[in-house]
Design a protein that fits this description.
Elements (H helix, E strand, L loop, with lengths): L2 H8 L2 H8 L15 H7 L9 H8 L6 H20 L1 H7 L9 H8 L6 H18 L10
Helix pairs in contact: 1-6, 5-8
Length: 144
């Protein structure tokens, strides 16, 4: 069993969420994209570089626009992959499903319509990366 699966099953979900989701990825705090307007509005006068804008956005997380929050979630999902992004969904929908042989992935596919946006985004990114690596069309995965 992988470390991620062990953690997802043994650490309370609130603690797991606190461990994996506090940081704002640098890609989300870029000078263009959905967080740029938030940075200008919430962090005026904060000089770029050294993670200062990222830190400012983290301090104002509750005030971020929906588009910026979505970009942050997407960046976290891309960085962490479906195992981390879907930990809460695995706990919710796949409790008691034995690991191995793709059983948990199948369980998530079976509950595709009910998965969290973070998990759906991670699956979409995973499918794209898999398709690029294999040079072929990816397997069907959870519908969004």
């Amino acid at each position: 069993m992988t470390t991620c699966k062990i953690l997802a099953r043994t650490i309370p979900l609130a603690l797991l969420a606190a461990l994996i989701a506090p940081a704002i990825p640098a890609s989300a705090a870029s000078h263009d994209g959905p967080c740029a307007a938030d940075a200008q509005k919430l962090c005026p006068g904060v000089p770029a570089g050294g993670g200062r804008i990222k830190k400012c956005l983290r301090e104002h997380q509750a005030d971020l626009s929906d588009a910026c929050k979505a970009r942050i979630q997407q960046a976290l999902a891309e960085r962490k992959g479906p195992h981390h992004a879907c930990a809460a969904d695995v706990e919710k929908f796949c409790q008691g499903v034995p690991a191995g042989g793709g059983k948990i992935a199948q369980c998530l596919k079976d509950h595709a319509a009910d998965l969290s946006p973070e998990c759906q985004a991670a699956w979409a990114t995973h499918r794209q990366q898999h398709a690029l690596k294999s040079g072929a069309a990816s397997q069907p995965a959870p519908a969004q």
